[in-house]
Design brief:
- This protein is an all-alpha fold.
- It has one domain.
- Helix content is 75%, strand content 0%.
- The protein has helices at 3-13, 16-21, 33-47, 53-78, 88-99, 105-121, 126-132, 135-161.
- The N and C termini lie far apart (50 Å).
Length: 162
C-alpha cells in the first residue's frame, strides 16, 4: 500500500462520515471500488427482501436523503468532488434497482450488471448531472439516474420475456 493510500485509509477509517461514505471501507478497494460498494446494496436488498415494498421504499428514501449529506460532506472534507472511493451513492442506487427487480438470481445479476454499466458509462444526462450539480445532490443524482435507466431496461426485458 502506498503512503497516499495509507493516509486515505487512515482518514476514512477514523471519521464516521467517511466510514459511511466509503461504504464501511469498501470504497478503499484498490480496483473498482464502485462495483465493490454496490455489493453492499445487494446485501441490503437481500436483508430487506421480505420486509415489504413500503418498508423497502422507506429504506430507499433514507439512503437517498442521508446520502446527499454524507456524500457531500465526505467530498467537502476530502476536497474532491465525487472521489472514487465514495460509494454510498452506489449502495443507494443498487438498492433502488433491486427493490423493483424480480427476486430471481438471473434478474439480480442482470440488474447489477446494468446498474454498473450505466454508472460507469454515464450516458446522457448522467454525466451532465454529475458535473453540473455540486455537492451531495450531484454525487447521488447521477447514480439514481443510472438506477432508473437500469430499472427501465430491466422492465423492458421483462416485458419481452412474457
Amino acid at each position: 500500500m502506498s503512503e497516499e493510500q495509507g493516509n486515505l485509509a487512515r482518514k476514512v477509517l477514523t471519521d464516521p462520515v467517511h466510514i459511511l461514505a466509503f461504504g464501511f471501507g469498501t470504497g478503499l478497494a484498490p480496483f473498482a471500488p464502485g462495483t465493490v460498494g454496490s455489493l453492499l446494496g445487494v446485501v441490503l436488498a437481500w436483508i430487506t427482501l421480505n420486509m415489504g415494498l413500503i418498508t423497502q421504499l422507506w429504506v430507499a428514501v433514507a439512503l437517498i436523503l442521508a446520502g446527499i449529506w454524507i456524500c457531500g460532506e465526505s467530498a467537502r472534507r476530502l476536497g474532491i468532488h465525487d472521489h472514487g472511493g465514495i460509494v454510498w451513492d452506489e449502495i443507494a442506487g443498487m438498492y433502488v434497482v433491486l427493490i423493483v427487480t424480480p427476486t430471481a438470481i438471473w434478474a439480480w445479476i442482470l440488474a447489477f450488471g446494468l446498474f454498473r454499466a450505466f454508472d460507469i458509462v454515464k450516458p446522457w444526462p448522467i454525466r451532465d448531472l454529475d458535473h453540473r450539480l455540486g455537492g451531495g445532490l450531484g454525487i447521488m443524482l447521477d447514480d439514481l439516474v443510472a438506477a432508473l435507466y437500469a430499472a427501465l431496461l430491466l422492465a423492458f426485458v421483462g416485458r419481452l420475456m412474457t
